[in-house]
């Protein structure tokens, strides 16, 4: 892995709300921890160079392309609720209970939409607007990524 790729990866991580990231393969170990807005990292090369067959390819993020994609996906003026963290999606407080919301439900600002479990912590995701649930974009117990769309809400 080239130093420029590592620098780009660190910049990308720094622009997220993630507090800790750990990447590891047979050639490289990378741990990044953000505390008090300072980025600390610990990089250990297990070998001087990566084998060609095991090279890690990192794709740089173009923020303009992301904005264009999001705008093209939101032609109906729907509010998209996105995952604030990586975790497991739960639509209800427990498997035997009904979902917090269903398609067609009207939600108010602050209403509970779902739970995202990350590292055994249950994080409640609440609605930031009043509106109608138009679409639920993930399934129960699905692993979601940071900033992944979860719900589409039509504002009232």
UniProtKB/TrEMBL annotation:
Transmembrane segments: none
Pathway(s) of this molecule: Lipid metabolism; fatty acid biosynthesis
Keywords: Biotin, Coiled coil, Fatty acid biosynthesis, Fatty acid metabolism, Lipid biosynthesis, Lipid metabolism
GO cellular component assignments: acetyl-CoA carboxylase complex
Coiled-coil ranges (or none): 6-56
One GO BP: fatty acid biosynthetic process
GO MF annotation: an example: acetyl-CoA carboxylase activity
Residue stretches making up the Lipoyl-binding domain: 78-154
Any Pfam family the entry gives: Biotin_lipoyl
PANTHER family named among the record's database cross-references: OXALOACETATE DECARBOXYLASE ALPHA CHAIN
NCBIfam families with a match to the protein in the record: BCCP (TIGR00531)
Its job: This protein is a component of the acetyl coenzyme A carboxylase complex; first, biotin carboxylase catalyzes the carboxylation of the carrier protein and then the transcarboxylase transfers the carboxyl group to form malonyl-CoA.
Protein name: Biotin carboxyl carrier protein of acetyl-CoA carboxylase
Gene source species: Romboutsia hominis
Taxonomic path: Bacteria, Bacillati, Bacillota, Clostridia, Peptostreptococcales
């Amino acid at each position: 892995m080239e130093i420029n790729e590592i620098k780009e990866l660190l910049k990308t991580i720094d622009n997220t709300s993630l507090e800790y990231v750990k990447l590891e393969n047979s050639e490289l170990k990378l741990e990044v921890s953000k505390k008090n807005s300072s980025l600390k990292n610990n990089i250990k090369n297990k070998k001087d160079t990566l084998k060609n067959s095991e090279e890690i390819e990192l794709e740089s993020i173009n923020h303009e392309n992301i904005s264009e994609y999001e705008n093209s996906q939101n032609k109906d003026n729907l509010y998209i609720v996105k995952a604030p963290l990586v975790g497991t999606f739960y639509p209800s407080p427990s498997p035997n209970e009904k979902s917090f919301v269903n398609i067609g439900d009207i939600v108010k600002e602050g209403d509970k939409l779902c739970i995202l479990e990350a590292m055994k912590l249950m994080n409640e995701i609440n609605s930031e607007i009043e509106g109608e649930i138009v679409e639920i974009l993930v399934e129960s117990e699905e692993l979601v990524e940071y900033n992944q769309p979860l719900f589409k809400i039509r504002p009232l």
